[in-house]
Amino acid sequence: MSQYKSHTDKTIQYLEYYLKAFHDHKDVFKEYQKDKSTMRKVREVTIRIQSEKSEVLNQHSLLGATVAKRCRIADEQRRDIDEIVADIYD
Q1: Residue 64 region, left (φ>0) first, then alpha (ψ -120 to 50), else beta?
Q2: Residue 52: which residues within 8 A CB-CB, separation 6 or more?
Q3: pLDDT (average), residues 22-38
Q4: Does the reported pTM lie above 0.70?
Q5: What is the number of structural domains in the chain?
Q6: Could you read off the pLDDT of 44-78 as tens digits, one per residue?
Q7: Which residue segment(s) compose the domain that 25 sits in?
Q8: Contact, 67 vs 50, CB < 8 A?
Q9: What pLDDT, on a 0 to 100 scale, did the predictor assign at position 17?
Q10: Within a domain: 4
């Protein structure tokens, strides 16, 4: 058996103090943490929008749109998705 105690009354008091302080102020970290439901919603919305946008690109391709025009459309679609995801996070 070790000659040192693992926790004294003083260390327990320190731990309790710092845990209480953390719990009192942990909300400052909330903006950096995305919860599971938010991440799930982002995933669902992104998949749905990408599917819809893919159909639009396919239609443009079938209608004979140039590669440059399809690239512009795809870039616009990516920016739209990024904005929607940012709105969900907010």
Answers
A1: left
A2: none
A3: 75
A4: no
A5: 1
A6: 988 888 888 788 777 777 777 788 887 888 888 88
A7: 9-89
A8: no
A9: 92
A10: no
